[in-house]
Amino acid sequence: MSNRLPRTVRINELPVAVEVVPSMRRKKTVSMEVYHSKIILRVPASLPSEAIFDLVEKRRQWILDKWQEVTEQPQPVASNTHAAPQDILLYGQELSIVHVTEHATTRFALKHRDNRVTIVRPSKTFNDQFLSETTRGLVVSWLRTTARRDFTERLDKWASVMSVSYRDFRLKDQKTRWGSCSSLGNINLNWRLIQAPEWVIDYVVIHELAHLRELNHSPSFWSIVGRYCPNYLEAKNWLKIHGAKLLLW
Fold it and tell me: Distance (Å, rounded) from C-alpha 117 to C-alpha 212?
């Protein structure tokens, strides 16, 4: 085998190549960066090509797990942080947002009924940016409250069904992950997930609880997920297709 460093290294199960980037400044250390569309392996320029192939082969499963983990997470979308969308999702159902002026009130309030979210506002004149920011704040607060209550109940339900025990649950405000499970047994869930259908929320909850048995994405892990969520592939696909809309809030 030639000592010339390869530009890329292929792994059969991986649709993207591992891009090899040599560095004259690196002496011994090797680093790896995993993205949706590529994986970058930074190595010392003096490292033999055989060593690179050996390294990739030894880390094959880790690379596959990490790439799968990254591609399952939502990709950030550019959005106007001030402008509030005209509709919202709750459990996969689209709700329209309407504004109603009440002369008797001095405060903004949110009311939810059927397929409508009503923002009640005082009769005073407000500029568009203030109205948009206030609407966003009310909707996000309502969604977070709903998510905390729902996710707590859902985690307890599935933990009992799966005969596992988690240490703590935290509601997270993230644009890159739907959920996570630490080695200490702490579960994090993205509040924006409350906008997804219940069967999709169940998948994410089951996914994270399954990590309490298998802290990886091995076949054993997916076997556990599939046992309690037979339609997990459909749930993953739903998040890939609709995830960007959930991130608008």
Answer: 37
The residue type at 191: W
User: Side chain identity at 143, as an amino acid letter?
Assistant: L
> Cα(first)–Cα(last) distance of the chain, in Å?
53
- CATH no. of 87-246: 3.30.2010.10
Strands 93-101 and 87-90: antiparallel
DSSP string, 105-132: -SS-EEEEETTEEEEEE-SS---HHHHH
Which two tokens mark 169?
């649950």
From the first residue on, what is the mean pLDDT of each consecutive set of 10 residues in the chain (249 residues)?
Answer: 61 73 81 79 84 82 77 60 74 93 88 93 82 90 97 98 97 91 96 97 98 93 97 94 87
Domain boundaries, the chain: 8-72, 87-246
CB 183 within 8 A of CB 176: no
